[in-house]
Amino acid sequence: MALFNKDKIAAIRGSNDNKPLIMLIDDEPDNLTVLVDLLGAQYRLMTSPNGRDAYAQIQAMDNREELSLIISDQRMPEMTGTELFAQIKDLIPDTVRIILTGYADVKAIIDAINDANIYKFMLKPYDPPQLLLTVKRALEYADMKRKIRRYTKTLETKVTERTLALQQKNAELEQKKDQLVMQEKMAAMGVLTGGLAHEFRNPLNFITNLSRMMCELVAEGRALLHQPLDEAGKIALDGVFEDLHANADVINTQSGHMNRIVDAMAAMIRPTSGQKRPTPLNEFAAEYVNFAYHHHKLVHGGLSVDLMFHLDERLGDIMINPQTLSHALLNLANNAIEAVSGETGKAGRVVLKTQQVADGVIIRLEDNGCGIKETDHTKVFEPFHTAKGVRSGHIGLGLSVAYDIVVKEHGGDLTLQSKAGEGTVVSIHLPA
Ligand SMILES: Nc1ncnc2c1ncn2[C@@H]1O[C@H](COP(=O)(O)OP(=O)(O)OP(=O)(O)O)[C@@H](O)[C@H]1O
Ligand SMILES: [Mg+2]
Protein backbone atom coordinates (compact mmCIF):
# COMPACT_ATOMS: atom_id res chain seq x y z
CA MET A 1 0.00 0.00 0.00
CA ALA A 2 1.40 3.40 -0.96
CA LEU A 3 1.99 5.84 1.87
CA PHE A 4 0.20 9.15 2.41
CA ASN A 5 2.66 11.67 1.04
CA LYS A 6 1.85 15.35 1.65
CA ASP A 7 4.47 16.64 -0.80
CA LYS A 8 3.21 14.39 -3.52
CA ILE A 9 -0.34 15.59 -2.99
CA ALA A 10 0.76 19.24 -2.95
CA ALA A 11 2.61 18.68 -6.20
CA ILE A 12 -0.47 17.16 -7.77
CA ARG A 13 -2.69 19.97 -6.48
CA GLY A 14 -0.28 22.55 -7.78
CA SER A 15 -0.17 21.21 -11.33
CA ASN A 16 -2.25 23.70 -13.16
CA ASP A 17 -3.34 21.84 -16.24
CA ASN A 18 -6.75 21.17 -17.65
CA LYS A 19 -7.24 17.86 -15.89
CA PRO A 20 -10.49 17.50 -13.94
CA LEU A 21 -10.26 18.53 -10.28
CA ILE A 22 -11.28 15.92 -7.67
CA MET A 23 -11.49 16.25 -3.88
CA LEU A 24 -10.79 13.19 -1.75
CA ILE A 25 -12.01 13.11 1.86
CA ASP A 26 -11.10 10.41 4.37
CA ASP A 27 -10.06 10.45 8.01
CA GLU A 28 -7.74 7.48 7.39
CA PRO A 29 -4.49 8.86 5.86
CA ASP A 30 -3.73 5.43 4.32
CA ASN A 31 -7.00 5.37 2.50
CA LEU A 32 -6.32 8.83 1.11
CA THR A 33 -2.88 7.76 -0.07
CA VAL A 34 -4.30 4.78 -1.93
CA LEU A 35 -6.77 7.02 -3.67
CA VAL A 36 -4.10 9.60 -4.52
CA ASP A 37 -1.93 6.87 -6.02
CA LEU A 38 -4.80 5.55 -8.01
CA LEU A 39 -6.03 8.86 -9.39
CA GLY A 40 -3.09 11.25 -9.17
CA ALA A 41 -1.69 10.55 -12.63
CA GLN A 42 -4.91 11.36 -14.43
CA TYR A 43 -6.48 14.06 -12.31
CA ARG A 44 -5.78 17.14 -10.23
CA LEU A 45 -6.48 16.27 -6.62
CA MET A 46 -7.39 18.01 -3.39
CA THR A 47 -7.47 16.12 -0.11
CA SER A 48 -9.12 16.64 3.23
CA PRO A 49 -9.09 14.61 6.50
CA ASN A 50 -12.70 15.37 7.51
CA GLY A 51 -16.03 16.96 6.57
CA ARG A 52 -15.49 20.23 8.45
CA ASP A 53 -12.10 20.85 6.80
CA ALA A 54 -13.49 19.89 3.39
CA TYR A 55 -16.35 22.34 3.82
CA ALA A 56 -13.93 25.13 4.81
CA GLN A 57 -11.70 24.37 1.82
CA ILE A 58 -14.60 24.43 -0.61
CA GLN A 59 -15.88 27.70 0.84
CA ALA A 60 -12.46 29.29 0.50
CA MET A 61 -12.11 28.29 -3.17
CA ASP A 62 -12.69 31.04 -5.68
CA ASN A 63 -12.85 28.55 -8.58
CA ARG A 64 -15.39 26.24 -6.89
CA GLU A 65 -17.18 25.40 -10.10
CA GLU A 66 -13.97 23.71 -11.32
CA LEU A 67 -14.41 21.02 -8.69
CA SER A 68 -15.85 18.18 -10.76
CA LEU A 69 -16.02 15.34 -8.27
CA ILE A 70 -15.83 14.66 -4.52
CA ILE A 71 -15.13 11.19 -3.22
CA SER A 72 -15.79 11.00 0.49
CA ASP A 73 -15.66 8.37 3.15
CA GLN A 74 -19.01 7.97 4.91
CA ARG A 75 -18.02 7.30 8.49
CA MET A 76 -15.88 10.14 9.81
CA PRO A 77 -15.81 11.83 13.20
CA GLU A 78 -18.11 14.86 13.68
CA MET A 79 -19.61 14.87 10.22
CA THR A 80 -20.51 11.95 7.94
CA GLY A 81 -19.94 12.03 4.20
CA THR A 82 -23.66 12.35 3.45
CA GLU A 83 -24.03 15.16 6.01
CA LEU A 84 -21.22 17.06 4.30
CA PHE A 85 -22.77 16.48 0.87
CA ALA A 86 -26.13 17.74 2.08
CA GLN A 87 -24.42 20.92 3.28
CA ILE A 88 -22.53 21.65 0.08
CA LYS A 89 -25.40 20.74 -2.25
CA ASP A 90 -26.28 24.36 -2.99
CA LEU A 91 -22.71 25.63 -2.84
CA ILE A 92 -21.50 23.43 -5.68
CA PRO A 93 -24.60 22.02 -7.40
CA ASP A 94 -22.77 20.65 -10.44
CA THR A 95 -20.10 18.73 -8.53
CA VAL A 96 -20.70 14.99 -8.66
CA ARG A 97 -20.53 13.13 -5.32
CA ILE A 98 -19.41 9.59 -4.52
CA ILE A 99 -19.54 8.00 -1.08
CA LEU A 100 -17.14 5.24 -0.05
CA THR A 101 -18.16 3.19 2.95
CA GLY A 102 -17.05 0.07 4.65
CA TYR A 103 -20.58 -0.61 5.89
CA ALA A 104 -23.69 -1.44 4.00
CA ASP A 105 -25.48 1.28 5.94
CA VAL A 106 -29.05 1.39 4.65
CA LYS A 107 -29.93 4.64 6.44
CA ALA A 108 -26.86 6.33 5.01
CA ILE A 109 -27.78 5.16 1.52
CA ILE A 110 -31.32 6.50 1.83
CA ASP A 111 -30.07 9.80 3.30
CA ALA A 112 -27.57 10.07 0.55
CA ILE A 113 -30.14 9.63 -2.16
CA ASN A 114 -32.73 11.90 -0.55
CA ASP A 115 -30.65 14.72 0.88
CA ALA A 116 -27.24 14.78 -0.63
CA ASN A 117 -28.00 14.00 -4.26
CA ILE A 118 -25.26 11.41 -4.50
CA TYR A 119 -24.09 9.96 -7.77
CA LYS A 120 -22.82 6.62 -6.44
CA PHE A 121 -22.44 4.70 -3.23
CA MET A 122 -19.40 2.34 -3.30
CA LEU A 123 -18.62 -0.34 -0.79
CA LYS A 124 -15.10 -0.79 0.62
CA PRO A 125 -12.98 -2.59 -0.20
CA TYR A 126 -13.44 -1.45 -3.75
CA ASP A 127 -11.96 -2.91 -6.87
CA PRO A 128 -9.48 -0.26 -8.22
CA PRO A 129 -10.33 -0.70 -11.94
CA GLN A 130 -13.99 -0.49 -10.92
CA LEU A 131 -13.34 2.73 -9.00
CA LEU A 132 -11.40 4.21 -11.94
CA LEU A 133 -14.28 3.42 -14.26
CA THR A 134 -16.80 4.92 -11.82
CA VAL A 135 -14.67 8.09 -11.53
CA LYS A 136 -14.44 8.33 -15.32
CA ARG A 137 -18.24 8.02 -15.70
CA ALA A 138 -18.85 10.45 -12.84
CA LEU A 139 -16.58 13.03 -14.51
CA GLU A 140 -18.38 12.60 -17.82
CA TYR A 141 -21.62 13.15 -15.95
CA ALA A 142 -20.19 16.27 -14.26
CA ASP A 143 -19.06 17.58 -17.61
CA MET A 144 -22.50 17.02 -19.09
CA LYS A 145 -24.18 18.77 -16.14
CA ARG A 146 -21.86 21.71 -16.51
CA LYS A 147 -22.47 21.92 -20.25
CA ILE A 148 -26.22 21.80 -19.74
CA ARG A 149 -26.03 24.57 -17.13
CA ARG A 150 -23.82 26.69 -19.37
CA TYR A 151 -26.11 26.05 -22.33
CA THR A 152 -29.20 26.92 -20.27
CA LYS A 153 -27.50 30.07 -19.05
CA THR A 154 -26.54 31.08 -22.60
CA LEU A 155 -30.06 30.33 -23.73
CA GLU A 156 -31.51 32.39 -20.92
CA THR A 157 -29.17 35.26 -21.71
CA LYS A 158 -30.03 34.97 -25.38
CA VAL A 159 -33.75 34.91 -24.65
CA THR A 160 -33.40 37.95 -22.38
CA GLU A 161 -31.34 39.77 -24.99
CA ARG A 162 -33.77 38.89 -27.77
CA THR A 163 -36.77 39.86 -25.64
CA LEU A 164 -35.14 43.19 -24.85
CA ALA A 165 -34.27 43.74 -28.51
CA LEU A 166 -37.82 42.85 -29.53
CA GLN A 167 -39.30 45.14 -26.91
CA GLN A 168 -37.08 47.93 -28.15
CA LYS A 169 -38.00 47.20 -31.78
CA ASN A 170 -41.67 47.15 -30.81
CA ALA A 171 -41.41 50.46 -29.06
CA GLU A 172 -39.64 51.93 -32.10
CA LEU A 173 -42.30 50.51 -34.42
CA GLU A 174 -45.09 51.87 -32.23
CA GLN A 175 -43.43 55.26 -32.32
CA LYS A 176 -43.01 55.02 -36.12
CA LYS A 177 -46.62 53.93 -36.46
CA ASP A 178 -47.77 56.92 -34.43
CA GLN A 179 -45.62 59.19 -36.56
CA LEU A 180 -47.03 57.64 -39.74
CA VAL A 181 -50.60 57.96 -38.52
CA MET A 182 -49.89 61.56 -37.61
CA GLN A 183 -48.31 62.22 -41.02
CA GLU A 184 -51.23 60.55 -42.72
CA LYS A 185 -53.64 62.64 -40.69
CA MET A 186 -51.75 65.79 -41.56
CA ALA A 187 -51.70 64.81 -45.24
CA ALA A 188 -55.41 64.02 -45.15
CA MET A 189 -56.00 67.34 -43.41
CA GLY A 190 -53.99 69.02 -46.16
CA VAL A 191 -56.01 67.38 -48.92
CA LEU A 192 -59.21 68.08 -47.10
CA THR A 193 -58.35 71.69 -46.34
CA GLY A 194 -57.32 72.19 -49.97
CA GLY A 195 -60.55 70.61 -51.16
CA LEU A 196 -62.58 72.59 -48.66
CA ALA A 197 -60.97 75.87 -49.64
CA HIS A 198 -61.71 75.08 -53.27
CA GLU A 199 -65.30 74.05 -52.49
CA PHE A 200 -65.96 77.08 -50.33
CA ARG A 201 -64.35 79.66 -52.62
CA ASN A 202 -67.13 79.67 -55.25
CA PRO A 203 -70.09 79.95 -52.90
CA LEU A 204 -68.21 82.52 -50.80
CA ASN A 205 -67.48 84.59 -53.92
CA PHE A 206 -71.15 84.43 -54.79
CA ILE A 207 -72.20 85.42 -51.29
CA THR A 208 -69.68 88.28 -51.08
CA ASN A 209 -70.50 89.75 -54.50
CA LEU A 210 -74.22 89.25 -54.29
CA SER A 211 -74.54 90.69 -50.78
CA ARG A 212 -72.56 93.76 -51.92
CA MET A 213 -74.90 94.02 -54.90
CA MET A 214 -77.83 93.73 -52.52
CA CYS A 215 -76.57 96.71 -50.52
CA GLU A 216 -76.38 98.71 -53.77
CA LEU A 217 -79.88 97.52 -54.68
CA VAL A 218 -81.23 98.64 -51.30
CA ALA A 219 -79.66 102.09 -51.84
CA GLU A 220 -81.18 102.16 -55.33
CA GLY A 221 -84.63 101.23 -53.95
CA ARG A 222 -84.37 103.90 -51.23
CA ALA A 223 -83.49 106.54 -53.81
CA LEU A 224 -86.55 105.53 -55.84
CA LEU A 225 -88.74 105.84 -52.73
CA HIS A 226 -87.53 109.38 -52.11
CA GLN A 227 -88.98 110.49 -55.42
CA PRO A 228 -92.66 110.72 -56.29
CA LEU A 229 -93.55 107.13 -57.25
CA ASP A 230 -95.01 107.27 -60.74
CA GLU A 231 -95.67 104.16 -62.86
CA ALA A 232 -92.11 104.05 -64.17
CA GLY A 233 -90.83 104.43 -60.62
CA LYS A 234 -93.00 101.52 -59.45
CA ILE A 235 -91.70 99.27 -62.28
CA ALA A 236 -88.11 100.25 -61.38
CA LEU A 237 -88.75 99.50 -57.68
CA ASP A 238 -90.31 96.16 -58.59
CA GLY A 239 -87.17 95.38 -60.59
CA VAL A 240 -85.05 96.21 -57.56
CA PHE A 241 -87.10 93.82 -55.39
CA GLU A 242 -86.89 91.12 -58.04
CA ASP A 243 -83.09 91.43 -58.16
CA LEU A 244 -82.92 91.42 -54.38
CA HIS A 245 -84.98 88.23 -54.29
CA ALA A 246 -82.89 86.56 -56.99
CA ASN A 247 -79.68 87.42 -55.16
CA ALA A 248 -81.04 86.20 -51.83
CA ASP A 249 -82.08 82.97 -53.53
CA VAL A 250 -78.58 82.34 -54.89
CA ILE A 251 -77.05 83.20 -51.50
CA ASN A 252 -79.46 80.76 -49.91
CA THR A 253 -78.51 77.95 -52.34
CA GLN A 254 -74.79 78.60 -51.96
CA SER A 255 -74.87 78.78 -48.18
CA GLY A 256 -76.99 75.61 -48.19
CA HIS A 257 -74.20 73.91 -50.17
CA MET A 258 -71.63 75.09 -47.66
CA ASN A 259 -73.82 73.84 -44.85
CA ARG A 260 -74.03 70.40 -46.43
CA ILE A 261 -70.23 70.31 -46.75
CA VAL A 262 -69.90 71.19 -43.08
CA ASP A 263 -72.47 68.49 -42.17
CA ALA A 264 -70.63 65.92 -44.26
CA MET A 265 -67.33 66.92 -42.71
CA ALA A 266 -68.83 66.45 -39.26
CA ALA A 267 -70.15 63.03 -40.30
CA MET A 268 -66.73 62.21 -41.68
CA ILE A 269 -65.05 63.06 -38.44
CA ARG A 270 -67.60 61.15 -36.37
CA PRO A 271 -66.82 57.74 -37.94
CA THR A 272 -63.35 57.74 -36.40
CA SER A 273 -65.00 56.84 -33.11
CA GLY A 274 -66.21 53.40 -32.06
CA GLN A 275 -64.40 50.13 -31.63
CA LYS A 276 -64.21 46.87 -33.48
CA ARG A 277 -66.42 44.15 -32.08
CA PRO A 278 -67.94 40.87 -33.31
CA THR A 279 -70.98 41.81 -35.40
CA PRO A 280 -73.44 39.55 -37.25
CA LEU A 281 -72.56 40.76 -40.75
CA ASN A 282 -75.65 39.65 -42.70
CA GLU A 283 -78.10 41.37 -40.36
CA PHE A 284 -75.86 44.41 -40.09
CA ALA A 285 -75.43 44.95 -43.86
CA ALA A 286 -79.11 44.25 -44.61
CA GLU A 287 -80.20 46.73 -41.92
CA TYR A 288 -78.24 49.66 -43.37
CA VAL A 289 -79.08 48.97 -47.02
CA ASN A 290 -82.74 48.73 -45.99
CA PHE A 291 -82.41 51.98 -44.07
CA ALA A 292 -81.01 53.80 -47.12
CA TYR A 293 -83.82 52.39 -49.27
CA HIS A 294 -86.63 53.49 -46.91
CA HIS A 295 -85.02 56.86 -46.35
CA HIS A 296 -85.06 57.50 -50.11
CA LYS A 297 -88.64 56.34 -50.39
CA LEU A 298 -89.64 58.73 -47.63
CA VAL A 299 -87.75 61.74 -48.94
CA HIS A 300 -88.32 61.33 -52.65
CA GLY A 301 -91.55 59.31 -52.69
CA GLY A 302 -92.65 57.10 -55.57
CA LEU A 303 -89.34 55.19 -55.58
CA SER A 304 -89.82 52.01 -57.53
CA VAL A 305 -86.68 50.02 -56.89
CA ASP A 306 -86.49 46.31 -56.42
CA LEU A 307 -84.29 45.63 -53.39
CA MET A 308 -82.93 42.06 -53.14
CA PHE A 309 -80.75 40.23 -50.63
CA HIS A 310 -78.49 37.24 -51.34
CA LEU A 311 -76.90 36.56 -47.99
CA ASP A 312 -74.46 33.75 -47.31
CA GLU A 313 -75.88 31.81 -44.37
CA ARG A 314 -72.44 30.54 -43.34
CA LEU A 315 -71.50 34.06 -42.29
CA GLY A 316 -71.36 34.56 -38.55
CA ASP A 317 -69.98 37.35 -36.41
CA ILE A 318 -67.18 39.40 -37.96
CA MET A 319 -64.82 41.82 -36.18
CA ILE A 320 -65.77 45.25 -37.50
CA ASN A 321 -66.34 48.75 -36.20
CA PRO A 322 -70.11 48.95 -36.76
CA GLN A 323 -70.16 52.70 -36.23
CA THR A 324 -67.92 53.46 -39.16
CA LEU A 325 -68.74 50.55 -41.45
CA SER A 326 -72.44 51.43 -41.27
CA HIS A 327 -71.50 54.87 -42.55
CA ALA A 328 -69.60 53.34 -45.49
CA LEU A 329 -72.50 50.98 -46.32
CA LEU A 330 -75.01 53.83 -46.23
CA ASN A 331 -72.88 55.85 -48.65
CA LEU A 332 -72.65 52.92 -51.09
CA ALA A 333 -76.34 52.06 -50.80
CA ASN A 334 -77.28 55.72 -51.34
CA ASN A 335 -75.17 55.82 -54.50
CA ALA A 336 -76.75 52.60 -55.81
CA ILE A 337 -80.30 53.80 -55.11
CA GLU A 338 -79.58 57.23 -56.60
CA ALA A 339 -78.12 55.55 -59.71
CA VAL A 340 -81.25 53.48 -60.34
CA SER A 341 -83.73 56.23 -59.48
CA GLY A 342 -82.70 58.46 -62.40
CA GLU A 343 -84.06 58.20 -65.93
CA THR A 344 -82.52 54.86 -66.93
CA GLY A 345 -85.56 53.58 -68.83
CA LYS A 346 -85.61 50.26 -66.95
CA ALA A 347 -86.91 48.86 -63.69
CA GLY A 348 -84.40 49.67 -60.96
CA ARG A 349 -82.76 46.82 -59.07
CA VAL A 350 -80.31 46.89 -56.16
CA VAL A 351 -78.88 43.63 -54.83
CA LEU A 352 -76.95 43.16 -51.57
CA LYS A 353 -74.79 40.01 -51.57
CA THR A 354 -72.57 38.63 -48.81
CA GLN A 355 -70.15 35.78 -49.20
CA GLN A 356 -67.80 33.87 -46.94
CA VAL A 357 -64.41 33.40 -48.66
CA ALA A 358 -61.22 31.67 -47.54
CA ASP A 359 -59.53 34.86 -46.35
CA GLY A 360 -62.52 36.81 -45.06
CA VAL A 361 -65.86 38.08 -46.26
CA ILE A 362 -67.18 39.95 -49.27
CA ILE A 363 -70.05 42.42 -49.27
CA ARG A 364 -71.28 43.37 -52.75
CA LEU A 365 -73.76 46.02 -53.79
CA GLU A 366 -74.96 45.63 -57.36
CA ASP A 367 -77.21 48.05 -59.21
CA ASN A 368 -78.46 48.31 -62.78
CA GLY A 369 -78.44 52.12 -62.69
CA CYS A 370 -76.74 54.73 -64.85
CA GLY A 371 -73.23 53.33 -64.32
CA ILE A 372 -69.96 55.29 -64.51
CA LYS A 373 -67.91 55.87 -67.62
CA GLU A 374 -64.51 54.24 -67.51
CA THR A 375 -62.50 57.47 -67.44
CA ASP A 376 -64.22 58.39 -64.15
CA HIS A 377 -63.58 55.07 -62.37
CA THR A 378 -60.68 56.42 -60.31
CA LYS A 379 -61.92 60.00 -60.07
CA VAL A 380 -65.05 58.94 -58.18
CA PHE A 381 -62.89 58.08 -55.15
CA GLU A 382 -61.46 61.61 -54.95
CA PRO A 383 -62.99 63.81 -52.26
CA PHE A 384 -65.50 66.34 -53.64
CA HIS A 385 -65.86 64.61 -57.00
CA THR A 386 -69.53 64.52 -57.81
CA ALA A 387 -71.42 64.22 -61.06
CA LYS A 388 -74.67 65.13 -59.38
CA GLY A 389 -74.45 68.93 -59.50
CA VAL A 390 -74.38 71.58 -56.78
CA ARG A 391 -78.15 71.89 -56.55
CA SER A 392 -78.53 68.14 -55.90
CA GLY A 393 -77.15 68.60 -52.42
CA HIS A 394 -74.34 66.09 -53.09
CA ILE A 395 -70.79 67.06 -52.35
CA GLY A 396 -68.88 64.02 -53.58
CA LEU A 397 -67.55 62.60 -50.32
CA GLY A 398 -69.51 59.30 -50.16
CA LEU A 399 -67.01 57.02 -51.91
CA SER A 400 -63.85 58.62 -50.53
CA VAL A 401 -65.15 58.28 -46.97
CA ALA A 402 -66.25 54.66 -47.60
CA TYR A 403 -62.79 53.91 -49.04
CA ASP A 404 -61.02 55.29 -45.95
CA ILE A 405 -63.25 53.27 -43.61
CA VAL A 406 -62.90 49.97 -45.48
CA VAL A 407 -59.24 50.18 -46.52
CA LYS A 408 -57.50 52.31 -43.91
CA GLU A 409 -59.51 51.42 -40.82
CA HIS A 410 -60.47 47.80 -41.54
CA GLY A 411 -57.50 46.76 -43.71
CA GLY A 412 -59.86 45.58 -46.43
CA ASP A 413 -60.39 46.35 -50.14
CA LEU A 414 -63.02 48.41 -51.86
CA THR A 415 -63.32 47.86 -55.59
CA LEU A 416 -65.69 49.24 -58.20
CA GLN A 417 -66.74 47.76 -61.53
CA SER A 418 -69.06 49.81 -63.65
CA LYS A 419 -70.26 50.28 -67.19
CA ALA A 420 -72.04 53.45 -68.28
CA GLY A 421 -75.69 52.71 -68.99
CA GLU A 422 -75.53 49.19 -67.52
CA GLY A 423 -74.82 49.39 -63.83
CA THR A 424 -72.28 49.22 -61.04
CA VAL A 425 -70.89 46.64 -58.64
CA VAL A 426 -69.07 47.83 -55.52
CA SER A 427 -67.30 45.11 -53.50
CA ILE A 428 -65.99 45.35 -49.98
CA HIS A 429 -63.52 42.65 -48.98
CA LEU A 430 -62.87 42.41 -45.26
CA PRO A 431 -60.00 40.23 -44.06
CA ALA A 432 -60.75 37.39 -41.66
N1 LIG B 1 -73.54 53.10 -57.91
C1 LIG B 1 -73.21 54.12 -58.68
N2 LIG B 1 -73.73 54.24 -59.93
C2 LIG B 1 -73.41 55.27 -60.68
N3 LIG B 1 -72.55 56.25 -60.34
C3 LIG B 1 -72.01 56.22 -59.15
C4 LIG B 1 -72.31 55.14 -58.25
N4 LIG B 1 -71.60 55.37 -57.14
C5 LIG B 1 -70.89 56.51 -57.33
N5 LIG B 1 -71.14 57.02 -58.51
C6 LIG B 1 -70.55 58.23 -59.11
O1 LIG B 1 -69.45 58.61 -58.32
C7 LIG B 1 -69.57 59.95 -57.89
C8 LIG B 1 -68.97 60.09 -56.54
O2 LIG B 1 -69.71 59.36 -55.60
P1 LIG B 1 -69.74 59.82 -54.10
O3 LIG B 1 -70.61 58.92 -53.36
O4 LIG B 1 -68.32 59.96 -53.66
O5 LIG B 1 -70.31 61.27 -54.15
P2 LIG B 1 -71.81 61.73 -54.42
O6 LIG B 1 -72.73 60.59 -54.33
O7 LIG B 1 -71.78 62.50 -55.69
O8 LIG B 1 -72.01 62.74 -53.23
P3 LIG B 1 -72.28 62.36 -51.68
O9 LIG B 1 -72.07 60.92 -51.56
O10 LIG B 1 -71.25 63.17 -50.94
O11 LIG B 1 -73.65 62.74 -51.38
C9 LIG B 1 -71.05 60.22 -57.94
O12 LIG B 1 -71.33 61.59 -58.13
C10 LIG B 1 -71.51 59.40 -59.11
O13 LIG B 1 -71.28 60.08 -60.30
MG1 LIG C 1 -72.66 59.31 -52.69
From TrEMBL:
It is an enzyme of class 2 (transferase). Its EC number is 2.7.13.3. The modification 4-aspartylphosphate is found at D73. It comes from the Bacteria. One of its GO terms (molecular function) is phosphorelay sensor kinase activity. Residues 195-432 form the Histidine kinase domain. This is histidine kinase. It comes from Acanthopleuribacter pedis.
